[in-house]
């Protein structure tokens, strides 16, 4: 099909191109830009004002000039070809294969700019997902269809944690070791992993880890490098979620979507906003960032009368470890909890350095209990949380008043806090089933006075505290 070619390029500013006297151009439409030497680049329409179109270039504007450049608008948004063959493949940030395996023979093409799920069509999340991480599975339980972000910081091991969760969730999906009640033994389970703005070394780490452990067979990877175009970074989470929607709602799979790092996505959003000379909001981020993030996060969930589900695990690094920064702040409003990584625990050599006390899963109670995990799950984790909180308070009091000022009970709780961090939070790269996690919790509670265990039932103590 022939498309009208415009030679009315009147402005080039960074990655932006201004085309005048256009007709019937739509927002989000893909443009093909022809340079003076005959090469072709791609772009996406960011804004339309009458006959003027603002185009964001995927490959950058270096080498373009106003006189020799021409633009064709192809009448379609950015799409990705979908088929079951996407499993086990590695793509770039806009869905083009980068693993040398050739193009996907598409069953259908889907617009990456999908819609958030209709609230009236949503089904309530209620099924436990086992990640193999004790502080998540027991204390901040992940439920199918949930949006549960990880708040990290620069230099913390969030990349290793993301790869571990993706690997263990994939391995455990059909594994009877998880009691057959968590990831659903026999259910079709997949991981869609998207990385944005990462270095070449980080990309190599993810690809090597997925291939070496065999997790790649049930995963789809989207990799956007730090030197890739900014507009590609904006598209990456949308491409990943489009792939997840296809697998979940058309192929009836349970999909875990892990996206890292949403901070790089928001920085790209700010960069494009500045190039468009928009009025900045908090800390220079665009005022519509909340709406933009919600359009991404709200594509996850469960739909009534559909077998599949999308569980979303976004990871973001908090600038200067500031939880009030706009990125974690807005993310916290949209999602159902947060898992926070602590720099103090990381410095102590604890991995994963999950800070249990400020972390939260708002849907935890919907995914645990008899028939899902174990009948003692809620009580034992509540007791662990209370004991750990009291132990941390006792340790802080000892710093101020000295250890001699502590009662015997306080000393035991302070000791418990240390053992909890080194023996429970700290698990390295090992994979713990929910039974192992709960049994370990009971073992730690043995050292506390029996009269202080007020959150567990006496019959549970007799049954599980061996």
Report on the architecture of this protein.
A hairpin with a 2-residue loop joins β5 and β6. The strands form four sheets. Strands 9, 11, 14, 15, 16, 17, 18, 19, 20 and 21 form a ten-stranded mixed beta sheet that branches. This protein has a seven-stranded antiparallel beta sheet with strand order 1-7-4-5-6-3-2, with no helix packed on it. Strands 8-10 form a two-stranded antiparallel ribbon. It has twelve helices and 21 strands. The model is unreliable at 171-186 (pLDDT under 50). The chain has helices at 134-139, 158-172, 200-213, 230-249, 262-275, 289-297, 326-334, 343-347, 377-401, 408-425, 434-445, 458-464; strands at residues 5-6, 9-13, 16-19, 29-34, 40-49, 52-57, 70-77, 79-82, 90-92, 108-111, 122-123, 128-129, 142-143, 150-152, 189-198, 219-225, 254-260, 301-303, 309-317, 337-340, 360-361. It folds into three domains: 5-77, Beta Barrel (Thrombin, subunit H), CATH 2.40.10.170; 80-366, Rossmann fold (3-Layer(aba) Sandwich); 377-464, no CATH class. The protein is an alpha/beta fold and 466 residues long. The radius of gyration is 25 Å and the shape is elongated.
The span between the termini is 74 Å
- Biggest sheet layout: 10 strands, mixed
Rg over C-alpha atoms, rounded to the nearest angstrom = 25 Å
Q: From the coordinates shown, what is the CATH architecture of the largest domain?
A: 3-Layer(aba) Sandwich
The number of strands is 21
Low-confidence stretches: 171-186
Overall average residue pLDDT: 89
Shape: elongated
Helical content (DSSP H or I, runs of 4+): 25-40%
- Count of the domains: 3
Assembly level: single chain
| Name of the CATH class of the largest domain | Alpha Beta
What percent of residues are in strands?
A: 15-25%
- Given helix and strand content, the structural type is alpha/beta
Query: Count of DSSP helices?
Result: 12
CATH topology-level name of the largest domain: Rossmann fold
